Amino acid sequence: MSYVARVASRRDRRPEALILDPGVLRDGELCEFQSELGVEHCGGTVVQPWRDRFLAAQAAELHVLSDPRELPDAQFPQVAVHLQKSRAATFEDLRQAWRVLEPGGQLLLAGSNSLGVVSAVKRLAAQLAQSGIVVANRARI
Predict the structure, then answer these.
(1) Residues pairing with 47 in the sheet
(2) Burial class (CB in 10 A: 0-12, 13-18, 19+), 73
(3) Where in the sequence is the domain holding 24, given as residue range(s)?
């Protein structure tokens, strides 16, 4: 009997990598705010205002925008927002994400426990009158 063990790389341990866990992403394009890992996996658009990360996504030949207002409404079946240190910045990303999400689409909020992702999911769910589900919560690998 043989098996292949998957060893988590440093990249896999980053909070942004949580959306790559099995069963999280749906089929179809993704609009991803503040990271590009999901778009690398399933295609779509990266929204990245930070110049160095914008240029890195561009060099990787990903479709990348610095301003989410350039995106048309209700275009994506799934949108991922990565939690930032600034609550205001995160909630602006969430506002834009909600705008570009197709009706019935999936909105993902990813981040580390140190930034308060669980409480942010609960707060967002209450504001949207939805039930928030924490699909991945792993403290250490």
Answers:
(1) 33, 65
(2) exposed
(3) 10-128
**Within-domain flag for 67:** yes
Q: What is the average pLDDT value for the chain, to the nearest integer?
A: 83
What are all long-range contacts of 89-93, with beta carbons under 8 Å and residues at least 24 apart?
90/120, 93/33, 93/34, 93/47, 93/68
CATH code assigned at 35? 3.40.50.150
Extended beta strands in the chain, E state: 30-33, 44-47, 63-65, 76-82, 101-110
Tokens of 21: 């866990």
Residue ranges in the chain modelled with pLDDT below 50: 1-11, 140-141
Residue 127: other Cβ atoms inside 10 A:
11
Smallest CA-to-CA distance from 37 within 124, 115, 117, 108 is with 108
What is the value of pTM for the model shown? 0.82
Q: Which residue has the tokens 């705010």?
A: 33
